[in-house]
Amino acid sequence: MAKRPAAESAAPRARLEIEFEQPHLLGPLFGEFDRNLVAIEDRLGVYIAARGAKVQIEGEPEDAARAREVLVGLYNRLDEGHDIDAETVNAIISMSGQPTLEGIIAPEVAEPPKVMIRTRKKTIVPRSKMQASYMEALARDDMIFALGPAGTGKTYLAVAQAVQQLIGGSVDRLILSRPAVEAGERLGFLPGDMKEKVDPYLRPLYDALYDMLPAEQVERRIASGEIEIAPIAFMRGRTLNDAFIILDEAQNTTPAQMKMFLTRFGMRSRMVVCGDPLQVDLPNPGASGLADAVGKLEGIPKIAMIRFGAGDVVRHPLVGRIVEAYEGKQG
């Protein structure tokens, strides 16, 4: 195996051993060319050796314990029938360093997550502590504001929850919306009919849907009206009952647009408002409807405010560092 020993340290080193009961899971657990083990070694500064169904971990006591939690957590995911990939490995490594994260990784137990979203194509589990809080809010609260940088899963998890509720019959339709506002562009200057003009702005919502449902189901449900993807201007004058409603890029709404959108909320519906307060593309960034709504609505029962930070970015690790760099400059 391509193992790299941990850096020299004067601190006493620990040696832990795990014996796994199902050897057929060790291939996917270790990864091709042991890449998952190498990732754990590199991130936690430990040395891992596998012999048969036994794995030995050597390193500083805290790091070795974290490595054991990560391996047991990954093994339990495989045992539950879930796949693991590089993103899953990195996410569980990151979460292992957080204070007891009940239901995701707890010392000695490393149980599979208790909060998850099931769609036709995949089962989604939280990849950070804040994602776990967000997923709990999505299942519990009537209105959720998800605030934070790109790559934290705000929109993706909202679409996943919406699809799960549509499949389960909790709602009759999904309404996915974005403001058609981008830096330096106006709809009137774009070629094509109205659908062709607005589709580029809505593409991230389509991408999330196709990740949750087979393509033919997405197309069929859009054609039947079960799924509607439209700019926020199309929401005016409507009352949306029995619906799961998502507003993406909410920082680019004006206060008037935000008030109009929030008051579309109907009976037996759920609404999620996603946005990054630091990425406003309006001509007057200080006039963002998202900031205005958060200031007015925070503290109202059944309205959850979930705030993600750079540490919650679950894309490539470099994205988190980029976000931190930009937030530092702006701060």
The biggest sheet, with number of strands, parallel, antiparallel or mixed sense and barrel status, is: 6 strands, parallel
Characterize the overall form: elongated
Give the structural class: alpha/beta
H and E order: EHHEEHHEEHEHEHHEEHEHEH
How many beta strands in the DSSP annotation? 11
Radius of gyration: 22 Å
Strand order of the largest sheet: 8-7-9-10-6-11
Please indicate the percent range of residues in DSSP E strands (runs of 2 or more). 15-25%
Share in helix:
25-40%
Termini Cα gap: 44 Å
Discrete helix count: 11
Overall average pLDDT: 81
Low-confidence stretches: 1-9, 99-112
List the helices and strands and how they pair.
Blueprint: E1 14-19, H1 26-30, H2 35-44, E2 47-51, E3 54-59, H3 61-79, H4 86-96, E4 117-118, E5 123-124, H5 129-140, E6 143-147, H6 154-168, E7 173-178, H7 194-212, H8 215-224, E8 227-231, E9 243-247, H9 255-262, E10 270-275, H10 289-297, E11 303-307, H11 317-330
Parallel strand pairs: 6-10, 6-11, 7-8, 7-9, 9-10
Antiparallel strand pairs: 1-3, 2-3, 4-5
What does this 3D model show about the protein?
The two termini are about 45 Å apart. This protein has helices spanning about 25-30, 35-45, 60-80, 85-95, 130-140, 155-170, 195-210, 215-225, 255-260, 290-295, 315-330, and strands spanning about 15-20, 45-50, 55-60, 115-120, 125, 145, 175-180, 225-230, 245, 270-275, 305. Helix content is about 40%, strand content about 15%. It is an alpha/beta fold and about 325 residues long. A six-stranded parallel sheet has the order 8-7-9-10-6-11, with helices on both faces. The chain has a three-stranded antiparallel sheet with strand order 1-3-2. β4 (about 115-120) and β5 (about 125) form a beta hairpin. The protein has eleven helices and eleven strands. α9 crosses α10. The radius of gyration is 22 Å and the shape is elongated.
